[in-house]
Write a structure and sequence with these properties.
By secondary structure, the chain is α/β, with parallel strands linked by helices. It has 20 helices and 14 strands. It folds into 3 domains: about 35-145 and about 185-350, 3-Layer(aba) Sandwich (Rossmann fold); about 150-185, no CATH class; about 375-530, IlvD/EDD C-terminal domain-like (Glucose Oxidase, domain 1, 3-Layer(bba) Sandwich), CATH 3.50.30.80. The longest helix has 20 residues, at about 225-240.
Length: about 575
């Protein structure tokens, strides 16, 4: 797409030059300022998002760096997305934020851009915009929060929230006892201190080469984060001089590097959707089965919650963070990929030590698991794919046959699961459908809203198999098959499943199937009628429903994908 730069603003004798100069001087700037490279700071600061509350301070540090390097910083603010504070799935607004960011980056006379983001839909939205605009751009991760503590027990929001709620519904905790712990789940502002979607996004952004080494894991409230912000400001001015644009950094090979780091960290399944969306904007693709192949060839190295025992906040960073993980994976990475440092991955890794704490980042010769965190499943139930977070699942449920109990309404499912008289057992497969990209709409994180039934918990059974076309929080755990594609609302095979059907899963064989014939599936689907959401008639949500792609294509809007110019 055509982009504005500061040079295009500067045409002596032009009326617009007079107007622009006058307006900038009205804000107290000088002609000397205007003559410098103009650096846009795109900030997602908001008071409705704990992951972004500290971004005003970070932005000021970025400005210091830009001024010091001879640039002229101008800040703009955008939508700021937090999953909890939106009454509809925030995935809808990832796409809206990407549109807003793209237009701000392209239409302003910015020669280079610093993106500041921290939470799980903001970062992919910013990167989706960045690959489309293709200006010199650096991403500044907002950083993790500190963990909380309750009476000597370290608590991390997300993972421990789900555990507390399971204890509450099983009768182990009263409502008040659970709520007494609520203020102890978060230790500071920043992204949830687990390898949930937010910190996975920050990790992947660094692994892609879009953030300074070590900046993904540093705490949001640390002095180091402020220093990294200033260094990012200094570096973007140099990137402008070097014409180091996003297309030179985000490539098929750098995405493969990022996928490998994702699998080694046991990161969030949501990144499959986000990386697919970024690639769709960039004009290339990596098949889901290649994600699976990379996972099978990548050991799980990082011992952090939800699949491990340590918080991300402080422990992961102090152990060496993303650089230390990449150092361990050095023999499996493409070392020629360019990064925002102006150096390749290989050049950056020459200065990196191996992990300082092997309890947190394991050696490649002594991994937590010989394979990575995810597994892609396909079959007659998910022709275009589904995913299970293998590192957070129970081994026996990765090889499973069980009767289906089907729900089209989450509230009904929750009520049935909470009923101690329900006939759920350890072999039951709970199917929650109609919550995909179009069906919900917005593919909410409802996979983790299916708690362990008290009837099973009392028997010492804390996991069971769930299948859904929705997503789950990266902080969640359990055997949950997600992103079933095509979704039920699109008339995918999931819409044909009935109570009592046998669902068969063999993760090692990448298989998920319902044990009925293709003919029977087709017969049942003849009677299927999508919801269509006739009550939603206007606005961006209507636009999303009409144009959203399926999970295996990144849930982007069809008209935003890469189009060859000319």
């Amino acid at each position: 797409m055509k982009n504005n730069t500061s040079e295009e603003w500067k045409h002596p004798g032009n009326r617009q030059e007079l107007l622009r100069s006058a307006l900038l001087q009205a804000m107290g700037y000088t002609d000397i300022d205007i003559s410098k490279p103009i650096i846009g700071i795109v900030n997602t600061w908001a008071e409705t998002n704990p992951g972004h509350l500290h971004f005003r301070q970070l932005s000021e540090a970025v400005k210091r760096g830009v001024w010091a390097a001879g640039g002229f910083p101008l800040e703009v603010n955008t939508l700021s997305i937090c999953e909890v504070f939106f009454d509809l799935s925030s995935l809808i607004y990832r796409n809206l934020l990407s549109i807003e960011t793209e237009e701000l980056m392209a239409r302003h006379p910015f020669d280079g851009i610093v993106l500041i983001g921290g939470c799980n839909k903001n970062i992919p939205a910013q990167l989706m915009a960045a690959v489309t605009v293709d200006k010199p751009t650096i991403f500044l991760p907002g950083g993790a929060m500190l963990p909380g503590n309750y009476k000597g027990e370290t608590l991390c929001c997300g993972t421990d929230t789900f555990k507390l709620y399971n204890r509450y519904i099983s009768g182990e905790l009263t409502w008040q006892e659970m709520m007494d712990r609520a203020g102890c789940l978060y230790g500071s502002v920043g992204a949830c201190p687990i390898m949930g979607t937010a910190n996975t996004c920050q990790t992947v952004a660094e692994a892609l080469g879009m953030a300074l080494p070590g900046s993904a894991s540093s705490l949001g409230v640390s002095a180091e984060k402020s220093r990294q912000a200033e260094l990012s400001g200094r570096r973007i001015v140099e990137m402008v001089k070097e014409n180091l644009t996003v297309s030179k950094i985000i490539t098929p090979d750098s995405v493969r590097n990022a996928i490998r780091v994702l699998m080694a960290c046991g990161g969030s399944t949501n990144l499959l959707i986000h990386l697919k969306a970024i690639m769709g904007r960039a004009g290339f693709d990596i098949d889901l089965m290649e994600f699976d192949a990379i996972s099978n060839d990548t050991p799980l190295l990082v011992n952090v919650k939800p699949h491990g025992t340590n918080p991300v906040g402080a422990e992961f960073h102090n152990a060496g963070g993303v650089p230390a993980v990449m150092k361990e994976l050095e023999g499996k990475l493409n070392l020629d990929c360019m990064t925002v440092t102006g150096k390749t991955v290989g050049e950056n890794l020459k200065k990196v030590d191996y992990a300082y704490d092997r309890r947190v980042i394991r050696s490649i010769d002594d991994p937590i698991s010989p394979v990575g965190g995810m597994c892609i499943l396909k079959g007659n139930l998910a022709p275009n794919g589904a995913v299970i977070k293998r590192s957070a699942a129970t081994e026996r449920l990765l090889h499973h046959r069980g009767r289906a109990k089907v729900f089209d309404d989450l509230s009904v499912a929750e009520k049935w699961l909470a009923d101690e008289n329900s006939d759920v057992d350890e072999n039951t497969v709970i199917v929650l459908r109609g919550y995909g990209p179009k069906g919900a709409p917005g593919m909410p994180e409802f996979g983790n809203y299916l708690p362990v039934p008290p009837a099973l918990h009392k028997k010492g059974i804390d996991d069971y198999l769930r299948v859904t076309d929705s997503r789950m929080s990266g902080g969640c755990f359990g055997s949950i098959i997600l992103h079933v594609s095509p979704e039920a609302e699109e008339g995918g095979p999931l819409a044909a499943v009935r109570d009592g059907d046998i669902i068969h899963v063999e993760a090692d064989e990448n298989l998920i199937e319902v044990e009925i014939s293709d003919e029977e599936i087709a017969r049942r689907l003849k009677d299927f009628k999508p919801k269509g959401h006739p009550d939603i008639k206007r606005g961006f949500v209507r636009n999303f429903i009409d144009h959203v792609l399926q999970a295996d294509q990144g849930c982007d809007l069809d008209y935003l994908r890469y189009v060859e110019e000319g």
